[in-house]
Amino acid sequence: MQLILYILRRLAITAGVVFIVLSFAGTLGISLRYLFDRNSYFEFFGDRDSSAERLWLVILHILPAIIALLIGPLQLSANIRKFVPRLHRITGRVYLCSVLASACGALAITPYSLGGTRNAMGFGLLAIVWTATTVKAVWRIRNGHISKHRFWMIMSYALTLAGITLRVQLGVFTGLIGMSFSHAYSITAWSSWIPNLVIAGIWIRYGTRRQE
After folding, report:
1. Residue 212 — pLDDT band, cuts 50, 70, 90?
2. pLDDT tens digit sequence for 159-191
3. CA distances (Å), 43 to each of 40, 47, 179, 206, in order?
4. Closest Cα to residue 152, out of 183, 130, 174?
5. Where are the alpha helices (DSSP H) in the chain?
């Protein structure tokens, strides 16, 4: 019985890793399409930016977000913090700059969000909270509060992962449930990041209990 449970756990972990890797790859692919494929760009923005004059703002949002998404795991790695602290500090600065740049780009294009004011509010608030949690993490480590720094960094990266949960949810809502894209997009403007914070909070609390 123990062997069966062990095998099931390993299979679950493997499936989870595969899902995360595929989600990462899919998110990066879709994001980069908006930058290099003008047809994809116009499919998304349509008459809200028919001349593509805001493309540079989209680039400002997407490219730094990709950087933050990729280096975030390095920031959360206990081994890197312990054995290569200099790398941890360098990637931390890069992560901070990436989040700030991406959030600025997001706020700039938020008024043109597909779906109008409700969606703009959801994505705009995400950019603000993303910035606030990241700055809070930096502030905490500057004052020597290591545990609080880790807490806010986990919260920050949970919001960085909203780019992935957004696209996974859109796939589920439109492909499996059959929602229209506009309806699904209105939901994911909020559901792509608020549950991330809740899950991150539960994970932090569970991890803290395990260490005690």
Report:
1. very low
2. 999 988 988 898 899 988 889 888 898 999 999
3. 5, 9, 18, 42
4. 130
5. 2-36, 38-45, 55-76, 78-83, 85-109, 117-142, 146-160, 162-171, 181-191, 194-211
